[in-house]
Amino acid sequence: MSESVRIHDMPRQDRPRERLTIQGADALKNEELLAILLRSGTRGTSALDAARALLTRFGTLDQLARARLEELQVVPGVGPDKAVTLKSAFTLAQRLAAEMACEMPLLDTPERVADLLRERNRAYQVEQFQVVLLNTRHRLIRVEMVSQGTLDTILVHPREVFRSAILGGAAAIIMVHNHPSGDPTPSEADIKVTRDLVRAGQLLKINLLDHVILGRKTGERARDFASLRELGYFAE
After folding, report:
1. Whether 95 and 21 share a structural domain
2. Tens-place pLDDT, residues 107-162
3. 86 vs 212: CA distance, rounded Å
């Protein structure tokens, strides 16, 4: 791409905005993404020229993000308004990175699942079926309530379970429901629905990692939950 070519002189399909729309942001170079933010240069400088000048002066995106407003403004083609736009964009990116660093909990054991949902389920008087949506690293995306039943019966269909997973962009799920009786021992219906959902997940390429049933501890029962995976109901 020639240094002297301005965006408006380029074929539409080669312009940064059009390329982003057609090919996605990942297809663009850093200078093109910066040019989109700048929109146009100042003092006769094109947005692409200004973007290249920024990268030349500061060297890396990290150094560019750290630059003060007055440092940005001395770059040809970048005036006060464009410096503010750049600073705003990089500040948002930094906040996003900080937000992502505070990762959601890792749910790789039934104990951790029970710890997450124990209090939420303690007061339920009827069975509540929840789907825990997880990303590829088995960290929580969110918990979806799917259905509720009578005192000891819950009706669940794979359609509702995996609709939540698909809409939530989940790579894997964990099923959770409570037993108001306090005894987390799985019923025949619990075992059947688990096996049905395992098969449905295999077809949809969404891994069902476990089915955790929450109950209450007693003198004879040390744990207040049961894991159908630990009990062997996920065996091939």
Report:
1. yes
2. 999 999 999 999 889 878 889 999 999 999 999 999 999 988 765 566 788 888 99
3. 48
Structure confidence by residue, pLDDT tens digits, 9-53 = 665 556 888 888 888 888 899 999 999 999 875 666 788 899 999
CATH number for the domain harbouring residue 38: 1.10.150.20
Give the Cα separation of 12 and 24 in Å (integer): 15
pTM above 0.70, yes or no: no
Q: Could you tell me if 133 and 95 lie in one domain?
A: no
- Nearest by Cα to 145 from 158, 125, 161, 157: 161
On whether both 17 and 62 belong to a single domain, the answer is: yes
The answer to whether 92 touches 85, Cβ cutoff 8 Å, is no
For residue range 62-93, list pLDDT tens digits in order.
899 889 999 999 999 899 999 999 999 999 98
By the 8 A CB rule, do 146 and 176 touch? Answer: no
DSSP per residue over the chain, as a string?
--TT--GGGS-GGGSHHHHHHHH-GGGS-HHHHHHHHH-S-STT--HHHHHHHHHHHH-SHHHHHH--HHHHHTSTT--HHHHHHHHHHHHHHHHHHHHHHSPPPB--SHHHHHHHHHHHHHT-SS-EEEEEEE-TTSBEEEEEEEEE-SSS-----HHHHHHHHHHTT-SEEEEEEE-TTS--PPPHHHHHHHHHHHHHHHHHT-EEEEEEEE----SS-S-SEEETTTTTTT--
Q: Which two tokens stand for residue 91?
A: 């500040």
